[in-house]
């Protein structure tokens, strides 16, 4: 039976790859993201699209109304929206602390708040039993991210997921987190990275290769399957062993 799948950040990278995997099953997919044109061009057969800033409560209320009208029930909710806060518009820089406050606020807004607002808005529409909530974290949540802001924003999803799993478990709904490592063919770095950096990131893996959006998408798809029905409150790392190091 076809399921209703809602994917934030579904226009590019991991979100788009996940959307294509679910659509290939015949599931009905709703793509959410800030850029309507990108969502339309994602190439996901039969997908619905809704352009929205998920960090804005008013925008998320609009999503909830759209879901109620078009889907009714949400079987799988995938949170792929987010990314490198350093690629967002710069804030005021009159004082170093202003810059710090801006960096941390932006990272938490696009990586944590977006996921929390969307979850809370759709929580009562999750299918029961059998509903799935899936968050995208990062290897940075374990190893840091240079400034700390991005890593902390992703790490904040972990306790939220654990609390949510306990809350939704009695309804037969599971909640899990997937934490990728270096994944190519996404917009995270804003383009190709320096070859030396790429080689260093690959060298940290045990598999000797970069991750792909498909690696993460198939993991999300499995966690959303009936076969993963007794797996909840877990953080699944998809990084070729890079988090363990050599």
Automatic annotation (TrEMBL):
GO molecular function terms noted in the UniProt entry: oxidoreductase activity, acting on the CH-OH group of donors, NAD or NADP as acceptor
Parts of the chain that traverse the membrane: none
Pfam families named in the record: adh_short_C2
PROSITE patterns for this protein: ADH_SHORT (PS00061)
InterPro entries (UniProt xref): KR_dom, NAD(P)-bd_dom_sf, Sc_DH/Rdtase_CS, SDR_fam
Residues in Ketoreductase domain copies: 3-186
BP terms from Gene Ontology: fatty acid elongation
Protein family per UniProt: Belongs to the short-chain dehydrogenases/reductases (SDR) family.
Protein name: Oxidoreductase
Organism from which the protein derives: Streptomyces shenzhenensis
């Amino acid at each position: 039976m076809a399921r209703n799948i809602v994917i934030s950040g579904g226009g590019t990278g991991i979100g788009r790859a996940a959307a294509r995997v679910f659509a290939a099953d015949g599931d009905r997919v709703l793509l959410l993201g800030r850029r309507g044109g990108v969502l339309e061009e994602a190439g996901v057969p039969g997908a619905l699209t809704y352009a929205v800033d998920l960090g804005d409560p008013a925008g998320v209320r609009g999503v909830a109304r759209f879901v109620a009208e078009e889907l009714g029930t949400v079987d799988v909710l995938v949170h792929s929206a987010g990314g490198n806060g350093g690629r967002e518009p710069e804030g005021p820089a009159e004082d170093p602390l202003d810059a710090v406050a801006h960096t941390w606020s932006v990272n938490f807004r696009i990586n944590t708040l977006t996921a929390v607002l969307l979850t809370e808005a759709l929580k009562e529409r999750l299918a029961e039993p059998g509903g799935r909530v899936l968050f995208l974290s990062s290897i940075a949540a374990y190893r840091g991210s240079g400034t700390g802001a991005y890593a902390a924003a992703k790490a904040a999803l972990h306790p939220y997921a654990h609390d949510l799993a306990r809350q939704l478990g009695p309804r037969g709904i599971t909640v899990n987190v997937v934490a990728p490592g270096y994944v190519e063919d996404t917009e995270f770095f804003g383009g190709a990275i320096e070859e030396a950096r790429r080689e260093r990131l690959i060298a940290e893996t045990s598999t000797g290769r970069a991750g792909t959006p498909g690696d993460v998408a198939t993991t999300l798809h499995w966690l959303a399957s009936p076969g993963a029905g007794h797996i909840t409150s877990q953080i699944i790392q998809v990084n070729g062993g890079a988090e363990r190091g050599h």
